[in-house]
Structure formats: structure tokens, C-alpha cells
Amino acid sequence: MRIKSLLRRLYPAPPAANPDARDALEAKLMASFPTPTHPPSRGRWAMGFALGAAGLVGACVVPADYELSMGHRMVVELQMSCGEFNPEALATHVKSEFEITQLMVGVRCAMADGQPESEGEVQLVMDLVGDISTEAVEVSLVESFPELADASIEFEALDGTVHGTLGGLLSKRALGLELLDRGSAEQTRALILAELAERGFEGTATVDVDVEEEITPLGRRVEIRVEVAAETGEPPEPSQP
Amino acid sequence: MLFGHGRLSGMRLARVALRAASGDGRAFRLLFRTLHPAVYGYLALRTSSSADAEDLTSTVFAKVVERLGSYNSGRGTPRAWALAIARNVLIDHLRAHRPHASLTEGEPALIDSRWSPDASGDERLERVRAALARYPDEVQEMFGLRFGEGLRNREIAVVMNMTEAAVKQRFSRVIRELRRRAEGGELEEVVHAH
Asked: Which of A119, A157, B20, B74 has the fewest CB atoms within 10 Å of its CB?
């Protein structure tokens, strides 16, 4: 056996830290950093939500707009040949490792001579809709794809704004992730009506859902617009986050 | 699973550190989660209790936050930088807790005193261990960092405040000697001043 192998066997593996102590320390240290504010979305791939209401009676419904976090856009930039870069493998990995409701990918390759086998700048834009830890995604990708070790990986929030008096009534779950997961406008409408019923809403409501999709050079752009008109004599229960 | 991200490359982690230095909390969280196992492991193997290791780890990361602005990626990886801070914190701790501590005494030994259970019963390993134990503390510390913590020569140089050339030279010479011992050379004659 080589001497270096012997030497490695001499030393014990470092003990693992107590997770509670580690988490407490992390929380304490994180207090030194400002709470992150989401930068404005670039808009091109952003998902818009609009919610309007008419004739709703009830003091508990406060007209307000609020931000709805949809997920994150990940931008990866690296130097390699476009021919060797495999965005499908990255997308498959992310979808299999994380609870991604929807994932959209766009790739741009810039080669000096236009040849795919030549090294150049590769930019991958991946929109990840879902409740994910960006750190975990970043680390998982870097660990699984060595070619990303020296890549620049940045995240920005994908935000939507919910407008209108029913904004506080419908939960984020109804308007956001599961809505996208279900895909079709009809299912979305049923979901929102079910959500209203669950909140104790007794009255009539119509829900119109428009989904617009557009294929752009960087990928698919999705915009979802939800219009709700409701009438009732009883104020609905506020939603639970 | 968010912890144990030791496989991030030094260059990549350096970028994360620079982002954290600019106030990016998300980057700091990644930095913390990547470095914590190394810092805690280093301290836990050189202190007498897990409580001491936790306290010292807390002190180290407080200093990491305090000094993030002065981190210079050209001088070493964040892991080496953090372990250099950990080493100084450990020295202060050991000085404060040894009997009759005095500033005129040399630095306390920072060697990892726990040998792996795997090292028992293997004649060649026993010979290497016995030979290594006869080297000066500084050499034993270098070997602990290299083969225990898995640091590279450049990182060891940063942690121990040496030049990389000096680290390489010393490893080269001592490993050559240890190889001879492992192969049945004269164990009794071993090594003194290096």
C-alpha cells in the first residue's frame, strides 16, 4: 500500500456537528445580513397575475396588492463549447432532485467562429417555479456537474403581483404553484372556486382564466390572468398562509 | 440535505465569499454551510469536548463575519482562510486553558491526538504512526491538515502561515522518510530536528 494511503488511514473522520447547534449558529449569524429583497423581475419570462373582484360585501376584505413569489430564475454562465453543453441533463437533474412545479430553459451560446465545438460563452437561463432552496439547487448542480465548478450561477426571484380585493382571500397556493401545476384554465377555475368554498364563501362567483403562452428565443413565456367576480352578503373567512 | 458542501471548488467558493462580503445573505448562508463541517471538525478533533468545539466554532464564524470584508481570494481559499482563523482561536483557547499559561511559552501543540481506530493492528500503520509521532509538533500538524482535513499544500501554507514551497519541501522529505520506515527501515533511528 502506498504511504499516502497509509497516512490517510491514520486519521479519523472529523465528527459531525450537532445539527441544532449548527442551525442556531446559522440563524444568529444570518441576523447580521439584511433580509433579502427580491430584485425586480426582468419581465420577459415573468408570470403575471391579475385578480379583480366586483360586488363583494364584507369589511374583512381589504383592497390591496401583494407580491407573490413564484420561484426563481437561475442564470448560469460558463466557458465551454456549446456542443458539449447539455442543458437537458441539467434540467432533468433539477426536476428529479427538487419539487419543481414548472421549469423553463433557454440557452445562448456565443462562439467566436460560430462552430459549436469551439469554446465560447454559454449562458443558461432556467426558470424554476416552485418552493426551492436556491442554495441547495446551486450546490447540487455544482456537485453533479463538474463543468459548472467555475461557472457563474446567479438567482433572482420570479415575482408576480396580485391586485384587487380578493387578494387576501385566495391563498398563494391557489393562485400560484398548484395553479400552474394543474395547467389548464378549466382546472384553475375549479381550483379557485373550491378555494372560495373552503373559505366559507357562499354566493355566486365567476372565474375567468386566460393563459397566454409565447415561444421566445430564450424559451417559453407564460402569462396567466385570473379574473374573479363574486357577490355575497357574508364576508369570507380570511385565508390562512 | 443542505450541509456538507465541501466539494465546491475553492475558486467557486471564493466567489461566494466575495458575494457574502458585499452583504449577500444568501451567499453567506452557502458559505457557512460549506465551511461549517470543516471548521467544526477541525476544532472537535483538537479540543476535549463537543461543547468546547461548538463554542469555538461560534467564535470562529463571528470572526468570519467580522472579517469578510478583508477576505482576499488571491491569498487562499475560503476554507484555508476560515481554518486559519480557527487555528488562531484554538491557540488562544488552549493557551487560556493550559496550566500556568505563559506568553513566553511556545504555541500549544495543535496536533490531532486522536488516531483512527483503523490504525490499530496493522503493523505498517503502527510503524508509520510511531515514526510520525516522533516528528516535531509542526510537522505532525501539517500531516493532520493534509491527511486528516484533506487540505492542499497551498491551503496548509495559509493555515500555518508558511510558504507553499516550505510546505512542499517538508512534506516531500518527511514522506520519503516515512516510506522507508513503513517498509521496515530503522524505526529506532528516526528523526528529530526538521
From this structure: B74
What are φ and ψ of residue A233, in 5° steps? Answer: -100, -10
| B114 and B59 inside one domain | no
- Interface size A-B, in CB pairs within 8 Å, comes to 141
Is B162 at the interface with chain A, CB within 8 A? Answer: no
B56 shares its domain with B129: no
Q: What amino acid occupies position A1?
A: M
Cell digits of residue A192: 379557485
Instruction: Output the pLDDT for position B165.
Output: 92
ipTM: 0.81
Question: Between β-strands A102-111 and A152-162, what pairing exists: parallel, antiparallel or unpaired?
Answer: unpaired
Contact across the interface for A3 and B182, Cβ inside 8 Å: yes
Nearest CB neighbour to A6, from listed B32, B42, B125: B125
Residues B70 and B112 in one domain: no
Residues B48 and B86 in one domain: yes
- Closest by alpha carbon to A167, among A178, A177, A158, A176? A176
Put simply, the answer to whether A16 touches B132 (Cβ < 8 Å) is no
The partner residue sitting opposite B29, judged by closest CB among A14, A15, A26, is A26
Number of C-beta neighbours around residue A8 at 10 A: 15
Which of B71, B101, B131 is at the close of a domain? B101
Parent domain of B60: 8-101
Last residue of a domain, one of B39, B74, B101: B101
Q: Give tens-digit pLDDT for A200-219.
A: 555 555 555 555 555 555 44
Q: Are residues B172 and B124 in the same domain?
A: yes
- Residue B131: how many other CB atoms lie within 10 Å: 20
The model's pLDDT over B85-135, given as tens digits with 9 standing for 90+, comes to: 999 999 999 888 776 544 444 555 566 556 665 556 678 888 888 888 889
Task: Say yes or no: B95 and B113 in one domain.
Answer: no
Dist. CA B41–CA B50, nearest whole Å: 10
> Considering the domain boundaries, does residue B59 fall inside one?
yes
Q: Best of B39, B55, B128 to disrupt the A interface by mutation (most A CBs within 10 Å)?
A: B128
Is the same domain home to B53 and B119?
Answer: no
Contact A36 B26 (CB under 8 A): yes
CA A105 to chain centre: 13
Give chain B's domain count. Answer: 2
Q: Which residue has the higher pLDDT, A232 or B149?
A: B149
Q: Are residues B85 and B143 in the same domain?
A: no
